[in-house]
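Per reviewer request, we include the raw input and output of the structure prediction for the construct analysed in the revised manuscript.
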Amino acid sequence: MTAERIESVPRVDPGTLTGEREALEQWLDFHRATLEQKCAGLDEAQLRTASAPPSDITLLGLVRHMAEVERGWFRKVLAGEEVGWIFSTVEDHDRDFHVTDEDTWEEAYAAWQGEIAKARANAAERGLDDLGVGKHRSGESFNLRWIYLHMIEEYARHNGHADLVRERIDGATGD
């Protein structure tokens, strides 16, 4: 197996002289594109391949999880929307990670991209210091700046997982 760079999904490097908001948005978009890049060119079976036992982390599960995270922070906390979870349930809070044979890439990708579009729209209506309308499950309020920073951290952490899963699948590596 020959390791190849993953480059089929375009990704724009964040600017080095941007203002705060533009930098936050660019870094978040960079990490969103990174996760998409890690999934590029794989079939359903490969997207379901777990990293290493006992972990059941898969690329499909990571995309489903990030759809839930986008929804939680930008719709529930920031905008105060009363929407349910996409994949998770009361019985299985981590259902987003627990993929079954019925779960598809098409469904997960569409949900993820839909949540990203809604996140962008909700964020565009607010300033960085604006507090979210909803509360986090902890009961705390968060401003948009904090949500952006948290989302960058969340993607960066899970993109590290995605690196390992992708390399295990076909040896492909990349930033």
